[in-house]
Input
Amino acid sequence: MNNFTQVLTIAGSDSDGSAGAQADLKTFMARGVYGMSVLTAAVAGNSYGIHDSVNMPVEFIKNEINDIKKDFKVTAFKTGMLSDSEIIHTIAEEIKDKPFGIFVLDPVIITKHGAMLLEKDAYQSLINELFPLADLITPNFYEAKKLTGLELKDKSEIIKSAQILQKLGPKNILIKGKHSANTTNNVEDYVLLENGNSFWVSKPFVKTTHINGSGDTLSSCIVAEIAKGKSMEQSIHIAKSFTYKAIKNEIDVGHKFGPVNHFVKY
Output
């Protein structure tokens, strides 16, 4: 029997299946790895919006993590929505000895539309406790602005912001490009690697309302590819292409803001 590649997401449950742990698990399957989940919260929502949410008790989160530690061989994992400082502290304590291999942190701080998602205490806990443990962080444009205090008005500021973020502890930085209705050309992401090398990853902007879970898909695809033995750079390029195709090839699900297409051929 082959030892199948195993990965993990530590994230919230999104009831409409478009984002959070559901998007991560769909991406894991699409990329040919076995995905597991530790749920930190549950969200009630649909394509019109989020209408309710509840956090999982920290003791339950610990039990989820410890049961996976005792049984499975996880070689890469990610975190998504970690909604308060107590949950963040719990996760930091449980993963500080690196039980699950390479750690990709998707800092769910601010939406792609600029709305703040974390309270002040949780925001600081994320930076102080989890950033130093991360092998890669994947902030969006607004999160990078918030974290660095820069306006990111041009490429030089984006490059500077990545350098600032790296000094907070994460080994590698991926700053996702700004998505806007006024965008007419490409969406460019900037990557600064642990060894000092850097590069831009660019794909055409797709005008669509079906982008729910695109950030989750990108980060979980990186996790999957790293677990399969690809380098950080290779994994990022693959994830950018896979996410672009999942956005470009729309599926008709939901009446308003729909999911990306994890069934896309790649």
User: Anything to note?
Assistant: The mean pLDDT is 94. The two ends are 27 Å apart (CA to CA). The chain is about 35% helix and 20% strand.
